[in-house]
């Protein structure tokens, strides 16, 4: 723990994850608009996109690690402090992206009444903008936290391992097997016994984050998971190339948040930085720690605003760009998007009203 009681490795994971999210969204255009799998720009985009796939699972793991350790004494207080700060920016940014897309991008002549009706439908069905799905998912999980936290605290370490093993089998291993069989035979397999709701979805990553944060894995298990994480970073771009080549279009089998490689990347990264907590705290001076803390606190706000910045300010990597051009374009534009998003958030944070309306009160 650093003097301001922040956990350095958690802050670093947040920063890495928000940078990874920006990379995912920036590289998506080349990957979806080009089927030239041997071009330099496709390979650069595929490589950066592949190694950034840990972003969303790690965000869920961090959320679980932090929120499940708190004591919840009042449902009303929990919703006021935890759920409302997510609902407010969901509404605000859905409106901002909806207006921008409707009247600036599409040049629509939609009347105010028609826009409100359309906006309400899109808000309810998560169709306002691509990255806002995360807020719907995390809000849904937060609504279960008052009960899930009691379940977690009543469980022993062995109980949690049992839950995580079943979740891995149902959500990760079974899905991988199903996807692999479908690509080999064009037939989906359906094993009814694998349809266990409590062991499906992002809740598993949420509880996994709590477990990795609070419990120490055996050395052998840590080594296995860490090494599988490293291997997955190398396998993902290569495997994506071959499955895409076979299908003729981008195949996201190894891109998904439940893909087996994404799982091992996320767990390996979390374990690595947790192990380095003491070393990082000792080696990094107080000013750098303050900067890390500042960027980490702004990560949620950067997530909300970065696509607007990307649409308005960034250039695009050309489909026919050379290896050097594609690399430089990606690095420069990601830096610009991240830098402008962070500075904009900090400027907006100078106003309490703006911080509350736009970011739910988060810094």
Automatic annotation (TrEMBL):
Domain spans labelled Acyltransferase: 8-340
Q: Which residues cross the membrane?
A: 12-31, 51-71, 83-100, 129-148, 160-177, 189-212, 224-243, 255-273, 294-314, 326-345
| Keywords, ordered alphabetically | Acyltransferase, Cell membrane, Membrane, Transferase, Transmembrane, Transmembrane helix
Carries keyword Transport? no
GO cellular component, as recorded: plasma membrane
Localized where? Cell membrane
- Which superkingdom, per the lineage? Bacteria
InterPro entries linked to this entry: Acyl_transf_3_dom
One Pfam family of this chain: Acyl_transf_3
- Membrane in keyword set: yes
Tell me a Gene Ontology molecular-function term this record carries: O-acetyltransferase activity
Tell me one GO biological process term. Answer: enterobacterial common antigen biosynthetic process
The way this protein sits in the membrane is described as: Multi-pass membrane protein
The Swiss-Prot or TrEMBL record describes its family as follows: Belongs to the acyltransferase 3 family.
Name of the protein this chain belongs to: Acyltransferase
């Amino acid at each position: 723990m650093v003097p301001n009681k922040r956990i350095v490795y958690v802050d670093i994971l947040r920063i890495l994850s928000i940078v990874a999210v920006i990379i995912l969204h920036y590289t998506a255009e080349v990957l979806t608009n080009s089927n030239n799998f041997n071009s330099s720009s496709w390979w650069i985009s595929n490589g950066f996109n592949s190694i950034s796939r840990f972003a969303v699972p790690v965000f869920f793991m961090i959320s679980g690690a932090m929120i499940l350790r708190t004591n919840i004494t009042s449902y009303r207080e929990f919703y006021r402090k935890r759920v409302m700060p997510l609902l407010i920016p969901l509404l605000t940014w859905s409106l901002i992206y909806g207006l921008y897309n409707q009247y600036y991008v599409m040049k629509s002549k939609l009347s105010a009444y028609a826009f409100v009706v359309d906006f309400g439908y899109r808000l309810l069905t998560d169709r306002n903008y691509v990255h806002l799905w995360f807020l719907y998912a995390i809000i849904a999980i937060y609504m279960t936290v008052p009960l899930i936290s009691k379940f977690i605290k009543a469980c022993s370490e062995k109980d949690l391992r049992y839950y995580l093993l079943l979740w891995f089998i149902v959500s990760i291993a079974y899905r991988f097997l199903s996807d692999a069989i479908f690509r080999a035979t064009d037939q989906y397999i359906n094993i009814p016994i694998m349809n266990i709701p409590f062991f499906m979805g992002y809740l598993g990553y949420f509880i996994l984050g709590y477990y990795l944060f609070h419990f120490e894995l055996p050395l052998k298990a840590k080594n296995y998971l860490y090494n599988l994480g490293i291997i997955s970073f190398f396998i993902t771009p290569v495997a994506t190339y071959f499955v895409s080549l076979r299908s003729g279009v981008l195949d996201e089998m190894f891109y998904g948040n439940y893909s087996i490689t994404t799982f091992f990347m996320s767990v390996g990264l979390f374990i690595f930085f947790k192990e380095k907590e003491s070393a990082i705290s000792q080696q990094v001076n107080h000013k750098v720690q303050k900067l890390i803390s500042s960027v980490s606190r702004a990560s949620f706000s950067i997530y909300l605003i970065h696509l607007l910045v990307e649409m308005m300010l960034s250039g695009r990597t050309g489909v026919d760009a050379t290896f050097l051009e594609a690399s430089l374009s990606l690095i420069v534009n990601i830096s610009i998007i991240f830098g402008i998003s962070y500075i904009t958030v900090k400027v907006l944070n100078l106003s309490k009203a703006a911080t509350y309306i736009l970011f739910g009160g988060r810094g």
